[in-house]
């Protein structure tokens, strides 16, 4: 049986007795053609069952039904949950999600946001490497929600990894550690600055010496330098910016014959896939990343469609009741320390 061909714009134009360009204007910019002609073209299109292309629908409605998720590194497993969370919420509301990888570059990120204007209805900006002013300017032309960032006037979702770092430090102090290193992340990372700002007063309160090492790229290959620096600094424990960096630290310590946790305790951050599979299993900070993605999508949908109220209590799919903020105030999601085999008592 022959499959019926989908009618085209050329078919509509022929049936309405107008040029293809006139039919296109009638369907996308009806104010630019005679009202009677526009009505005739629309009626013919409906009769034929013509479905305009996505670009034509965007011209007609001013909307693309597309949202961008902008990430600093799509290969980092930390962001996998974010992709799932935003994608699921957006699909439920009829949106398509596209990914943009900015390769840990503020310059690429800024250029990406410029090019996204007019191509998407909005964007979720995760772990941005841009300055506050750059994000604020971008938000003037594109509906934005930020993850792991606070920007006045821009809604966002914040994972309390700074609080998780303090939990890790308290755990190490309980194990008898008095000299602890923090292997810092990129200088452009807002989260890294926030963690250091939380760790320094916590160390003073707990009576532990904090040694800041780095900065390091948040990748496995940077772990060797971080491990070497920690050993040179004479610390008994190291807290890494993320799990990928911690994996590299574990590898380097093993290569140098340093036992973990006997010779050096190691803590990661993110609890990505594999954190419990490395040996020893990694003590790390668990973040509700997928939940953060869903909440970020909720906030963006509120801006785009008014789907959900900006304020008041809301319960997500995991049954956690959180406060949807007034515009500009972030949703704060808690983190927790998961203790595994990579941390133990300080060896004096």
Largest sheet: 6 strands, parallel
Q: Helix share of residues?
A: 40-55%
CATH fold annotation of the largest domain? Rossmann fold
Mean pLDDT value: 88
Domain count: the total is: 3
What is the CATH superfamily of the largest domain? Answer: Response regulator
Instruction: Give the helices and strands as they follow along the chain.
Output: HHHHEHEHEHEEHEHEHEHEEHEEEE
- Number of E-state strands: 14
Order of strands in the sheet with the most strands? 2-1-3-4-5-13
Proportion of β residues?
15-25%
Radius of gyration: 26 Å
Pfam families: LacI (PF00356), Peripla_BP_3 (PF13377)
Protein name: Transcriptional regulator, LacI family
Keywords: DNA-binding, Transcription, Transcription regulation
Organism: Cellulomonas flavigena (strain ATCC 482 / DSM 20109 / BCRC 11376 / JCM 18109 / NBRC 3775 / NCIMB 8073 / NRS 134)
Structural commentary:
- The protein has 348 residues and is of the alpha/beta class.
- It is built from 12 helices and 14 strands.
- The protein has helices spanning 9-16, 20-28, 35-48, 54-61, 80-92, 106-116, 132-138, 161-174, 190-206, 223-233, 243-255, 289-305, and strands at 66-71, 96-101, 122-126, 143-147, 156-159, 179-183, 209-213, 237-240, 265-267, 284-286, 312-315, 321-324, 331-333, 336-338.
- The strands form 4 sheets. It has a 6-stranded parallel β-sheet with strand order 2-1-3-4-5-13, with helices on both faces. Strands 7-6-8-9 form a 4-stranded parallel β-sheet, sandwiched between helices.
- Helix 5 (80-92) runs parallel beside helix 12.
- It is elongated and about 90 Å long.
- The N and C termini lie far apart (82 Å).
- Residues 309-327 have low confidence and may be disordered.
- InterPro entries: HTH_LacI, LacI/GalR-like_sensor, Lambda_DNA-bd_dom_sf, Peripla_BP_I.
- This is Transcriptional regulator, LacI family.
């Amino acid at each position: 049986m022959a499959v019926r061909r989908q009618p085209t714009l050329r078919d509509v134009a022929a049936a309405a007795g107008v040029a293809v360009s006139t039919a296109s204007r009638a369907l996308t910019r009806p104010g630019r053609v005679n009202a009677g002609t526009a009505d005739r073209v629309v009626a013919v299109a409906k009769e034929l069952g013509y479905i305009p292309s996505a670009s034509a629908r965007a011209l007609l409605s001013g909307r693309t039904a597309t949202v961008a998720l902008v990430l600093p590194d799509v290969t980092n497993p930390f962001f996998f949950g974010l992709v799932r969370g935003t994608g699921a919420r957006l699909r439920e509301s009829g949106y398509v999600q596209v990914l943009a990888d900015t390769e840990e570059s503020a310059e690429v990120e800024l250029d990406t946001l410029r090019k996204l204007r007019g191509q998407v209805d909005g964007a979720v900006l995760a772990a941005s490497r841009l300055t506050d002013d750059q994000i604020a300017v971008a938000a003037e032309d594109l509906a934005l929600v930020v993850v792991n960032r606070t920007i006045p006037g821009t809604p966002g979702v914040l994972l309390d990894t700074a609080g998780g770092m303090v939990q890790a430090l308290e755990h190490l102090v309980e194990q008898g550690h008095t000299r602890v290193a923090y292997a810092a992340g990129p200088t452009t990372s807002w989260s890294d600055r926030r963690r250091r700002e939380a760790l320094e007063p916590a160390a003073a309160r707990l009576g532990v010496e904090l040694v800041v090492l780095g900065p390091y790229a948040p990748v496995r290959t940077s772990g060797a330098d971080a491990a070497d620096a920690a050993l040179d600094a004479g610390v008994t424990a190291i807290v890494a910016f993320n799990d990928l960096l911690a994996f590299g630290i574990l590898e380097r310590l093993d290569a140098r014959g340093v036992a973990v946790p006997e010779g050096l305790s190691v803590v990661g951050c993110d609890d990505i896939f594999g954190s419990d599979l490395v040996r020893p299993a990694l003590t790390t900070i668990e973040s509700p990343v997928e939940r953060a993605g869903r909440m970020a999508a909720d906030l963006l949908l509120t801006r785009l469609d008014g789907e959900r109220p900006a304020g008041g209590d809301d319960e997500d799919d995991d049954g956690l009741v959180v406060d949807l903020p007034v515009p500009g105030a972030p949703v704060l999601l808690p983190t927790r320390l998961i203790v595994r085999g990579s941390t133990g008592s300080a060896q004096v």
